[in-house]
Amino acid sequence: MAYQKCIKCGSEYGIDEIVYFCKKCEDILEIKFEQGELAEALKDRKWRNTPLSVWRYRPFMPVSVTTKIVTLNEGGTGFHSCKNLAKHVGLRELYVKNEGENPTGSFKDRGMTVGVTKAVELGVKSVICASTGNTSASLAAYAAKAGLQCAVLIPSGKIAYGKLSQAMIYGAKVIQVRGNFDESLDAVLKLSEKHRSIYLLNSINPFRIEGQKSLGYEICDQLNQEAPDRIIVPVGNAGNISAIWKGFSEFNELDLIKTLPKMTGIQASGSAPIAHAIKNGSETIVPVAAPETVATAIRIGAPVSWKKALNAIRDSGGTAETVTDDEILNAQKLLARVEGLFVEPASASSIAGLIKLVENGVIDRDERIVCVTTGHGLKDPDTAVKMSEKPVEVDAEISAIEEALGLKKQVAIMAR
Ligand code: F0G
Question: Binning pLDDT at 50, 70 and 90, where does residue 412 land?
């Protein structure tokens, strides 16, 4: 049976124990499987004939076989071969794994379907999280589906409108905290310790990470049982890059893939403690006290899963890079205009990072690369509108519309 294990001192906890930090050394936990447990699960080949989705991988998820899952049909997201962007950047083979195609528009749904299923299995009645927006939208939706009470803490004034509207319409109790994400997370950690009946579903909860590891599994399956050379991922609280690495590592241990990708984390330059630690070769991170970036989803100064992320990046021979707000917004526009993919600014940081790392010569032009875009562009319509050309307003007259479209000039030229 699977169990929970401290990533530092190795202390073990039962799969049904509600514990977020190691009681001995206070580090974070991960889910481990008994020797041979996943290999045994693999023998049941039925899963391979089911469509791509998080629950296709149910045998590799730490929930009981009798549990009724809470699902909105998450996973199975598009794996786009991006030939136009590849040409633009000068690469041979480039894919975008577009997680905005999940039910609430971000990769968080992969973690929430497993996290909320576990919450129901544990018999809890209320759930909580702190969020820069997407986690709260996702938790609110899955809590609604499961009939659980839900509260979300978000930084006041700094979350994108689409995400706020989601949390509100799904019926969560929305608390705006005067402060940033790090302060909100600190508050929910204390709250969930004090009120043990409220189940915490930030990515510190290792069941969330189990759901998100399916992103790694799925990429292998979409590449016909191969790993790419490199995965480029936006990094905020650092759960996702750790989860994707866990997925690839497990498939590698099961011999389903022969190689492992270089995990490459991208952070916004105003919120980049992990990228700085990687660049400085440091064993720990230095939290950023006042993180700032237009990519509000990753405006995080003290990522809770930093140690898992540093391990994933270093163990895989990957790297980390920072990108400026301008680079992020230019990449967002480029992806939309050459590939027809509209992603939110944080998601576009993986594309901005790709461009920078190719220019710096860190990425070889022959590498097979997958960029993960983490959330849908409609999450943050304000930023998209602000950075695009304004619509032209005209009277409902053909000649005015022709003029606005530049058709009058063409007619004049042809008449000459
Ligand atoms: N991209 C998007 C769109 C996100 O919403 C997040 C995280 C990330 C990337 C970074 O992922 O935290 O696992 O490193 N959003 C969280 C939230 C923090 O509250 O929605 P990470």
Answer: low
Q: What does the alpha-carbon distance between residue 168 and residue 242 come to, in Å, rounded to a whole number?
A: 29
Number of domains into which the chain is organized = 1
Task: State residue 408's pLDDT score.
Answer: 77
Contact 73, 347 (CB under 8 A): no
Q: What is the CATH number of the domain that holds 327?
A: 3.40.50.1100
239, containing H or E segment: helix 239-253
Contacts for 358 with CB less than 8 Å, ≥ 6 apart: 89, 90, 91, 365
Domain containing 362 equals 78-104+209-386
The pLDDT of 170-193, averaged and rounded, is 97
In angstroms and rounded to an integer, the radius of gyration of the C-alpha atoms of the chain is 22
Distance 296 CA to ligand 1 centre (A): 9
Q: Which tokens belong to 414? A: 């042809």
- Angle 92-95-96 from CA coordinates, rounded to 5°: 145
Separation of CA 234 and ligand 1 centre (Å): 8
Helices 407-415 and 398-405 meet at what angle, rounded to 10? 90
Contact between 183 and 290 under an 8 Å Cβ cutoff? The reply is no
Distance 26 CA to ligand 1 centre (A): 23
Please spell the DSSP secondary structure of 9-23, one letter per residue.
T--EE-TT---SB-T
Q: Classify residue 82: in a domain, yes or no.
A: yes
Report which of 205, 59, 204 is spatially closest to residue 122, judged by C-alpha positions. 205
Give the nearest ligand 1 atom to 309 CA. Answer: 14
Residue 203 lies in a domain: no
Residue 95 parent element (H or E): strand 93-98
Give the pLDDT confidence of 120-160 residue by residue, as tens digits: 999 999 999 999 999 999 999 999 999 999 999 999 988 99
Neighbours of 151 (CB within 10 A): 20
The answer to whether the pTM exceeds 0.90 is yes
